Amino acid sequence: MPAAPTASGASRATAVDTSIVGADVRVPLVTGERVTYANFDYAASAPCLSAVREVLDASLPYYASVHRGAGFHSQVSTDAYEQARRSVARFAGARHNDAVVFVRGTTDALNLLARSVPKDCTVVVFAAEHHASLLPWQHRGSRAGQVIRLPLPRSADAAVEAAREALRSSPEGPRLLCVTGASNVTGEIWPIERLTAVAHSAGARIVVDAAQLIPHREVSLSATGADYVAFSGHKLYAPFGAGVLAGRTDWLQAATPYLAGGGATGNVTEDDVRWNDLPARHEAGSPNVLGAVTLAAACDTLAAAGQDALHAREQALLDRLRTGLAAIPGVRDLALWDADHPRVGIVSFVIDGLSSDLVAAALSAEHGIGVRDGLFCAHLLTRHLLPEGHEQAVRASLGLGTTEEHVDRLIGAVAGLAAHGPRWEYRDDNGRVAPLPDPRPAR
What we know:
Number of helices: 14
Shape: globular
């Protein structure tokens, strides 16, 4: 039998190639010029790694449904899918008895966990969370009982103490602390190891929303002691619709499947259903084989390249960007904690006198720079951090394709906007600010 095009095997051949697909794409400006696109929207969705695309291309000829097919392609795809699970487990530092469940993304993972916690589990969560980790506990179908929402902490130390006190005073029974690894608004890294220790000392568990942390720093269940971790492929340079919930098995094994259907069932009779064991128990339907395989390829590539080295490069670019923005009059960045608190490559800011949607539109139309504007699905945190007179912010997020030229172009463009405003006319176009006229082709 020919070797299956597994994620780890295919990605090792190009493991140190951390280039991204589309890095050389040139985009049109309203002035008629074309420039290389400067992508500062990695925190929303990261582009595809070239190594991931190679794995996708190698896998497509063998693509088939997994686990229940006798055909050659089905066997090859099944092998690749389960090899992907092992690769992801290694990348997340999973313990030997942890489950790795493939889902659609971080939001899906945390909703799955919310429906798998023991009935009336007390959940402690900070108001600083992304909606994906703030809302599932109170959503219809969640098994959580009391949800304790903690206010925004003034420091990392305050976050640890707030969690300690909340867990100490919470009702007896199963309890879960839900925390972010890194803020998608400020990039600030949360003290996961200390929060894990606090949770465990209180007899509680902890789940880490690592969507924004794991593309930038190593995240390990075994090293941190965290009980669960959730993350998304589309933020990890594998934009093909897969994500992961990894962690302890007992709650997941005891829970009724999140989705009922084929694959989750061990046996169905007229009177009863016997559900499968993990991980199939929570992977009903035809799994996203290519999503899992490409996610694993991204994990293998980043691991082989060395996340410490990648972080050092990113940190230099982040320091360059923050220093440049700080020197521009009228520009203010958003931060929950001290300016020197460790961050991943995310900076959110405002320009006095200009709305964030206008700034984002002008950066794109006049400079070929892609940023995000809004409240970033973290409304409670972002609104708290916004200076008076601003309703939304601009977010610039860095990644593997970011260059010094991109950073300098963004700094120069923001400086020009802060000093003189946009050079073009703009109007509201179905809720989005757009240049008027817009001579750019659609593609």
